[in-house]
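Figure-free illustration: sequence to structure, shown twice.
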Amino acid sequence: MRSAPALLLAALLLPGCGDTPWSGLLPGPASPGQDIAPAGPALRLTLRGRASHAALVQEMGERRLWRTAGNQVVETDGGRVVATSGLGEMLAATRFDGPDPLAAPAALLERPALARRMVDLMRADRSPEGMRFGVQVECRLRAEPTEDAAVLLVEETCRAAGEGRFTNRFWVAAEGGAVLQSRQWIGPGLPMLAVEFLSPAS
């Protein structure tokens, strides 16, 4: 079953989403072009060299939904981006075949892991020809120390069926495994998305 955040994101992807029962759960966006760092938990998203802040609007366990002032939406599961909206090409859904090795990055220091997931992709205009469902993504994850003893680098080398190859990079806390920063693939028509997790004290 899809989580509540995934359903919220799906509602945002649908035409006329302002009339959905989920619309009242999301606060209205700020004025166009206005990018103010939120006071609470937030992401700093950088795409094509342009940075914006995304505020936390919904949370259920490790699943979180974030939105920018420009009405771009990102759903994360832990430190991984699993769905997007408002970015031209959209990552509509992610489904893992088994546990995500990124959840235990320290284990990847000694033994790399293989992972497989299925993703649904969609263009912003939601045209039928731009919809690709069940795209298989096969990955190999490994971790290595960095110059900062408190941080590990996890590299995830992937092949997406019909969409080519890419490498995600996650900088994670050596103790606890929380993702601090990352560069992640969010679809074949977009550059890598840089994500920084900001604490309320930032």
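We now fold a second protein in the same way, so the two outputs can be compared directly.
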Amino acid sequence: MPDLDKNERKELIKEAITEWLDKQFATFGKWAFASLFSVGLAAFLYFVLINSGWKK
């Protein structure tokens, strides 16, 4: 491996991680990610409201 300075090494690693994340995101799917995020956010808000005294 050729000697790379710190900035070149940083850019190379950044590009590799970005490519890997893009591949993983495409495999998992945008809609599945958004769905899981929405369910998690709703559950979090529900528990916050319950713990702050919001009940029937």
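Summary for the second example: The helical segments are 6-28, 30-51.
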